[in-house]
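Provenance

Sequences were taken from public entries as deposited. Structures were produced by running a predictor on each sequence independently, with no templates supplied. The record for Cytidylate kinase from Yoonia vestfoldensis SKA53 is shown for reference.
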Amino acid sequence: MSFTVAIDGPAAAGKGTISKAVAVHFGFAHLDTGLLYRAVGAKVLAGADPVAAARALDPADLDGDALRTAEVAQAASRVATDPAVRDALTAFQRGFAARPGGAVLDGRDIGTVICPGAQVKLFVTASAACRAERRWKELQAQGSDMTLETVLADVQARDARDAGRATAPLAAAADAVLIDTSDMSIADAVARTIAVIAAAQKSLQG
Ligand code: CDP
Ligand code: CDP
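Predicted structure for Cytidylate kinase:
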């Protein structure tokens, strides 16, 4: 039987870090759905048509540090406003979510649009200042010379575009558990998520 965990939230809230740890803990497969949009964004920066790029996306396109740049993140958030791009990526995500053995998917619209029937939904957030500082540290480690102010402006622009778009905007599902990681360690955020999932599994087992 499939068991799906949907983790949504804004940029650098900790979704990926929590998802990876949870996947290891429960033996679930993990899909970072942001990588799909980043891969399409990267192809568009290289001159491709967004919808054609989304339809032709190959799992091999999801590898690589080149997708982690701020420029690709912005391109991802622009292509993500196109309903035809989102449509082209839906079947792959739903197929992944239905894997036997369980799956965790993180993104913006997993609990609301991709997997509205997910057994567990979480909305992970943190203050914009906190998220910008986390992302800035990551970019610094990659050798980027972006200032904290630029990273903050970037994160805020992306949040506004993601939350304001007409199709599948960034939003918490009505039945999502909210986790604000601003003052939480990674270990605490992971422990809290594991507890939510374990409780859902227990109640399903009756
Ligand atoms: O996937 P998402 O963009 O939501 O965030 P992430 O890549 O999991 O986390 C962004 C950065 O914040 C990573 O460097 C994490 O190590 C860090 N982080 C943190 O400092 N405290 C947390 N509670 C969660 C993540
Ligand atoms: O790691 P971070 O949270 O900064 O970004 P990401 O999860 O890699 O997502 C990059 C961009 O893809 C987001 O700003 C969204 O515009 C878009 N995205 C989306 O629209 N729907 C998803 N399920 C995942 C990402």
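The chain has a mean pLDDT of 96.
The chain has one domain: 4-204.
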